[in-house]
């Protein structure tokens, strides 16, 4: 393993730190690429699928060894309140690529092999923003923004693509509906090179491609996006990590992802690129709790994937850039995955599109540990599909009345257990003192509830008035 042990890391920074290290943070100057006439910074985004908030040592996992993720936290910043813009796969990835709430780009729901929609060609993706500044770009892993050629990564700013176009359970071996899906394509560029590939090798293949891309582009700025299929079910792991975790197969899968992180960080170190590269690690949404021992853990958070409670959208968020992000720092300010686009653009010296709304904000003051830095968001809005279900402003989170799914009996061995439908009425939570969203304080703060409701109504109205269409193919008659 590449870095120190989880125990060493916890000793160094102290688990449970709950404040932005304002007084102790080093103010990081701008990147050398934009302020000192040297190369622009490289960017690496590693995205997992359905990983729980607690599924790393540096976030409190008691039984999964993640020395490389713990090392990232020890050498960089650990965000405690980092959010995905959705509790599901497609919309969260749409937000990452466009810097927008997925409802604004009309991709609010999961799409699959029978859908005719995808990311619109008129959207300006994170890859296109950076490519316009001379960046080499590559995506290795799960895309899930449309599987038709016009929707694939190489048509949206990426020079190279290798991976699955949607979730790895959308194949003939689906655990509950084997007839629902066609053969699963493994795609290179826009061509299918294999059907129903050996999923035990996916993490290894993506990692090998990622390292080769870094080696090939070591002398120019690059953007590398590695969206792993795992630990989305069905779980698969290579022989390197099979049977190695105390947490069973799920833990094995996380250990292999951690190994992958180590391989990428090791390549940067070996090529002398560590101090020129910002590396981000996060997940697209929370754990798929119905799969029981094949699912992750949201730890102290309420519920999981598919819900707008924090268990569905608050994610692991690690950022590492030696010399620019203060080592061992912790940020408790809210930030979101769609903030990466404007932040990377600022660091690369790129301009954002001026003809459309971009919801993300520049969070470099947070990531660089600037004293007193605050979240650039007055509020963060939680949608399930096109329904606005909650709003967070500061430490306060207001749920609007809505139905949600909750686990009845967990499944096991790759088979899901049933959900039950529940309802939450209007409820206000103080996330600083009630991270599990259990104690409704709405009756004690009626004016705050009224203010948050008004913010939510206005935002939802404005968003829907400015929503842009998805890409759509025309079926031949």
List keywords for this structure.
11 helices; 2 domains; 477 residues; 4-stranded antiparallel sheet; globular; 19% strand; 11-stranded mixed sheet; Alkaline Phosphatase, subunit A; Arylsulfatase, C-terminal domain; alpha/beta; disordered N terminus
Please describe what this structure looks like.
Helix 1 packs parallel to helix 3 and helix 6 packs parallel to helix 7. The protein has two domains: 345 residues, Alkaline Phosphatase, subunit A (3-Layer(aba) Sandwich); 90 residues, Arylsulfatase, C-terminal domain (2-Layer Sandwich). Strands 1, 2, 4, 5, 6, 7, 8, 9, 10, 11 and 12 form an eleven-stranded mixed beta sheet that branches. It has a four-stranded antiparallel beta sheet with strand order 13-14-15-18, covered by helices on one side. A two-stranded antiparallel ribbon has the order 3-19. The chain contains eleven helices and 19 strands. It is an alpha/beta fold and 477 residues long. It is globular, with a radius of gyration of 21 Å.
CATH C-level class of the largest domain: Alpha Beta
Task: Report the end-to-end length measured between terminal Cα atoms.
Answer: 55 Å
Indicate the mean pLDDT: 92
What is the count of distinct domains?
Answer: 2
As residue ranges, the low-confidence spans are 1-37
Determine Rg (CA atoms, Å). Answer: 21 Å
Write the CATH fold name of the largest domain. Answer: Alkaline Phosphatase, subunit A
Number of strands: 19
Query: Which CATH-level-2 architecture of the largest domain?
Result: 3-Layer(aba) Sandwich
* Percent of residues in β-strands: 15-25%
What is the overall shape? globular
Structural class: alpha/beta
> What is the fourth-level CATH superfamily of the largest domain?
Alkaline Phosphatase, subunit A
Count of helical stretches: 11
Helix/strand order: HHEHEHEHEEEEHEHEHEEEHHEEEEEEHE
Helix content: 10-25%
**Could you give a short account of the major beta sheet?**
11 strands, mixed
């Amino acid at each position: 393993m590449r870095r120190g042990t989880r125990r060493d890391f916890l000793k160094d920074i102290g688990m449970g730190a709950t404040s932005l290290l304002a007084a102790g943070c080093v103010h990081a100057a701008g990147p050398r690429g934009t302020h000192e006439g040297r190369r622009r910074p490289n960017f690496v985004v590693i995205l997992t699928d359905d990983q729980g908030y607690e599924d790393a040592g540096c976030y409190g996992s008691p039984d999964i060894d993640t020395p490389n993720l713990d090392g990232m936290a020890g050498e960089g910043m650990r965000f405690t309140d980092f959010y995905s813009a959705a509790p599901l796969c497609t919309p969260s990835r749409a937000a990452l690529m466009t810097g927008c709430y997925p409802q604004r780009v009309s991709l609010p729901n999961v799409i699959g092999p029978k859908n005719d929609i995808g990311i619109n060609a008129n959207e300006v993706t994170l890859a296109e923003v950076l490519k316009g500044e001379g960046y080499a770009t590559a995506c290795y892993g799960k895309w899930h923004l449309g599987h038709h050629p016009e929707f694939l990564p190489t048509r949206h700013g990426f020079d190279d693509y290798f991976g699955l176009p949607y979730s790895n359970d959308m194949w003939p071996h689906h655990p509950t509906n084997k007839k629902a899906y066609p053969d699963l394509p493994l795609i290179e560029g826009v061509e299918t090179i294999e059907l129903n590939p050996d999923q035990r090798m996916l993490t290894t293949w993506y990692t090998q491609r990622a390292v080769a891309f870094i080696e090939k582009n070591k002398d120019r700025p690059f953007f590398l996006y590695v969206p792993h299929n795992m630990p989305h079910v069905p779980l698969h792991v290579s022989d390197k990590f099979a049977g190695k975790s105390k947490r069973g197969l799920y833990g094995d899968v996380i250990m292999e992802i951690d190994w992958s992180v180590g391989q990428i960080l090791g390549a940067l170190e070996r090529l002398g690129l560590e101090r020129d590269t910002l590396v981000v690690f996060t997940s697209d949404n929370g754990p798929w709790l119905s799969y029981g021992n094949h699912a992750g853990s949201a730890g102290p958070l309420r519920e999981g994937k598919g819900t707008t409670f924090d268990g569905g959208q608050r994610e692991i968020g690690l950022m590492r850039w030696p010399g620019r992000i203060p080592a061992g720092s912790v940020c408790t300010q809210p930030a979101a995955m769609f903030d990466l686009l404007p932040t990377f653009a600022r660091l690369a010296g790129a301009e954002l599109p001026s003809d459309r709304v971009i919801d993300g904000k520049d969070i470099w003051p947070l990531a660089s540990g600037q004293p007193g830095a605050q979240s650039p968001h007055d509020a963060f809005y939680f949608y399930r599909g096109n329904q606005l279900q909650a709003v967070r402003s500061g430490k306060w989170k207001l749920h609007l009345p809505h139905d949600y799914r909750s686990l009845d009996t967990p499944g096991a061995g790759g088979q899901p257990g049933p959900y039950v439908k529940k309802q939450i009425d209007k409820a206000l939570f103080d996330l600083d003192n009630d991270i599990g969203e259990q104690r409704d304080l709405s009756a004690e703060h009626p004016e705050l509830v009224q203010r948050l409701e008004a913010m939510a109504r206005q935002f939802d109205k404005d968003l829907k008035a400015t929503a842009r269409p998805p890409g759509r193919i025309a079926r031949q008659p």
